[in-house]
Amino acid sequence: MTPDDHVDTGAMFQLNGQVAVITGAGGLLGAQHAIALSDLGAKVVLTDLTTDTCEPTARHIARDDELRAIAVPCDVTLRSSWEAVLERTMSQYGRVDILVNNAAFTTQSPSPRYDAAFSEFPLDDWHSILEVNLTGTFLGSQVIGRQMLEQHSGSIINMASLYGVVSPNHRMYPGTGIHQPVAYSVSKAGVIALTRYLGTLWAAQGVRVNSITPGGVSNRHPQPFTDRYASLSPIGRMARTHEMRGALIYLASSASTYCTGHNLVVDGGWTAW
User: Fold this and answer.
1) Which of 163, 184, 197, 250 is catalytic?
2) How confident is the model at residue 6 (pLDDT cuts 50, 70, 90)?
């Protein structure tokens, strides 16, 4: 038997003693990320523009141990806000092991003219979407990544998108009230490129950087949209909110120590067709 034969597979996924920071933790997937990481033993710092949106999840996680979760405000577009999150995390827990860059403008939390046609799409919305979705990921990786480099360990997980890999199917949207603007696709493609850049830059220093590309996640979408989506998906439906948990835990844990610069696609087979 080799030394590797004695590795406990179950233990590879455990996060006991680790500390995770999640942005956009008041959103649909942000809360799921926090719960998943906590379930495997991590202490979690839930951040959002205001703590009102993520406090309920933090309280739920910390119901048996108040140190298991805290809520901290963070404007991901401001370096000073990131520095404040890092300072609070270090003062509370003394380390940071996992960063989930999840905050974004989406169809559930749109910019003011998110639904504008390409020919009239406002420059202000273009800048706003790129600033949150891409620059926010850049700043978080800089500030939190710096601490990880000092520790010689860490896992950064960036939330990308199906539409950073392929174009939206433009025929799917008319009459549904749902829109996917150009800035969203461009920003998420940038997140994947940033992931590859940092994943290779920091690999030898113990800091892994990967991304997750979710397929469409069900969230009370109108029936015409869900029907069209299902008809284009090999699995025949949208994702359920908990179905990104496995990918997240894999990339956060020591189960993925030989994985960096990777974009993990969890899309029900959408991009296989």
Assistant:
1) 184
2) confident
Q: What are phi and psi of 207, to 5 degrees?
A: -110, 120
Q: Which residue has the tokens 């000092």?
A: 150
Confidence tier at 174 by pLDDT (50, 70, 90): very high
The answer for residues whose C-beta is within 8 angstroms of residue 33's C-beta and 6 or more apart is 22, 25, 100, 102, 244, 245, 248
Is the pLDDT reported for residue 80 higher than 70? yes
d(CA 76, CA 48) in angstroms, rounded, equals 8
Q: What is the arithmetic mean of pLDDT over 218-232?
A: 94
Q: Give the DSSP per-residue string, the chain.
A: --GGGG--HHHHT--TT-EEEESSTTSHHHHHHHHHHHHTT-EEEEEESSTTTTHHHHHHHTSS-TTSEEEEE--TT-HHHHHHHHHHHHHHHS---EEEE-----SSS--TTTT--GGG--HHHHHHHHIIIIIHHHHHHHHHHHHHHHHT-EEEEEE--GGGTS---GGG-TTTT----HHHHHHHHHHHHHHHHHHHHSGGGTEEEEEEEE-PBPSS--HHHHHHHHHH-TTSSPBPGGGGHHHHHHHHSGGGTT--S-EEEESTTGGG-
229 is catalytic: no
Distance from C-alpha of 141 to C-alpha of 136, rounded to nearest angstrom: 8
Tens-digit pLDDT profile for residues 7-31: 899 999 999 999 999 999 999 999 9
pLDDT of residue 3: 63
Q: What is the spatial distance between Cα 172 and Cα 170, in angstroms, rounded to a whole number?
A: 5
